[in-house]
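User: I'm curious whether this sequence folds into something compact or stays loose and floppy. Could you predict its structure so I can see for myself?
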Amino acid sequence: MKCPFCQHEDTQVLDTRVSEEGDTIRRRRRCAKCDKRFTTYERIELAMPVVVKKNGSRTEFDASKLRASLKLALRKRPVSAEAVDAAIHRIEEKLLSSGEREVVSGHIGELVMHELKRLDKIAYIRFASVYKSFEDVAEFQDAIAEVGQERKSPVR
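Assistant: Here's the prediction. I'll summarize afterward.
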């Protein structure tokens, strides 16, 4: 760690403390050259993976786009804001826990469909019809039949 005063690279840690929340480490340091003291903080840095779009371009993950997609599918449906927030949180957790630096946009779409299927079957059909680019009524019927079969099968 370089000294912020003289840029010397040899500094000594005098004291280390963990914050009350447990998410930050505070270190008091002393420069071996100029003898000045300073404080540094260590925090966990979690970075969302970069999204690779269908055309191959890359963009930063944007939770507001995720929220907008969910809200559009759930428009006029009886799903609480808390349930939407929880779904977004689960999607973000899955992306973070994957450890991947890049994720294809299709994977995010699949995660959204999984969450919508849990939240509201109608919203799931709405999203799936656009996401999977349904071409005819038969594809709608297949998706509806899939959701209908899940309702009939026993929960394990």
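Summary: The mean pLDDT is 87. Helices lie at 63-73, 81-98, 105-119, 121-131, 137-152.
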